[in-house]
Amino acid sequence: MKHPKTPPANPALVRARHALQLYSQEAFAAAYDDAARALGCRTSISVRQVRRWETASPPWPHPEARRVLEALFGCPVAMLGFVAPGTAPNGEPHDDCTRLFDEGPERLRRLMDLEADSLSIRSYEPQVVPGLLQSPNYALANAYMNKPTLTLTAAYERQRLRLERSQRLLSRDLPTSFIIPEVALQRPVGGLATMAEQLDHLLGIVTRYEHVRIQVLTTSAPIVESVPLYLLDMLPGRMVAWIEGRPGSVLMTSPNDTADLELIFDRLATVALDPAASLELVDRMRREACVAIETRL
User: How many CB atoms lie within 10 A of CB 41?
Assistant: First the structure.
């Protein structure tokens, strides 16, 4: 008689490593060590440490380990099943909670409720054009890139929801600031034609909505951040952070956490191009993409 497989004690971390095709604890330890070396960190882990992290109550990683984990998985360690000292382990609401939302309707509803009550929004995406700025074809291609197993119906539904949410927010005259890495504008998601359309879409948004501010973080910038940031200034003068990752989305409300994330965003904004120079770069990249398309015809 076969016994049912015991679910992992820390499913968030196990799901995250499986998403990177790290199906064994040995492979996870090796990938961690590779990421640490790439960051210049003198830290490594054993399979025994991986086992401790995958228990029901994993120990809070030390600062250097947190940096490596966040670079490896592209999300805060709170999304990997770790609970910082002094926070609620079950995610039940209190003033300083950190809560994980899995993929599903609750995730989008919660985010839309926060956006409806926000006074301003600041967004940084390290790999792609932020969702609120995506063109229709780019949004569809990005949905497939994030989850290749999506059905056509599901992909179009994600595209529809993203475009409706974007239109609703951008038309509110809500102060909204975006930082987009240059590498995200160079990555031809959906192909060169889709990317040219996306670049033109960015220029159109800034022309139409004066309250939207876009800055490009060039490849020569001295600062880079691997974790996406979505900061919302709420009533009454309270900030929350919504962090997206493969395991789900984290809502961070602790003043200490949000202050740290705001500092990161402000530092990125300081070294990014100013809005005028950013739009000049976007326009130049759009023209170069159009020329490349014509050359291929």
Answer: 16
β-strands 238-245, 229-234 pairing: antiparallel
Name residue 251's amino acid. L
Supply the CATH classification number for the domain 98-296. Answer: 3.30.870
Could you give phi then psi for residue 28, rounded to 5 degrees?
-65, -45
Cα–Cα separations (whole angstroms), residue 40 to 64, 148, 159, 247: 10, 33, 39, 26
Low-confidence ranges of the chain (pLDDT < 50): 1, 86, 89-97
Residue found by looking up tokens 């932020």 in the block: 130
Could you give the residue ranges of the DSSP H alpha helices within the chain? 11-19, 25-39, 47-53, 63-73, 105-116, 136-146, 152-170, 182-186, 192-208, 255-271, 275-296
Distance (Å, rounded) from C-alpha 201 to C-alpha 162? 15
pTM (2 decimals)? 0.69
DSSP H/E element including 213: strand 212-217
Element (H or E) spanning 98, and its range? strand 98-101
Supply the pLDDT for residue 82: 85
Q: By CB neighbour count within 10 A (0-12 exposed, 13-18 middle, 19+ buried), where does 134 fall?
A: buried
Residue 248 zone, left/alpha/beta (φ > 0; ψ -120 to 50; rest)? left
Contact 118, 240 (CB under 8 A): no
Predicted local distance difference test score (pLDDT) of residue 102 = 55
Give the pLDDT confidence score for residue 185 in this predicted structure: 96
At how many degrees (to 10) do helices 11-19 and 25-39 cross? 70
Q: How far apart are the first and last CA of the chain?
A: 63
Q: Which residue has the tokens 């530092």?
A: 267
Residue 146 near residue 189 (C-beta atoms within 8 A): no
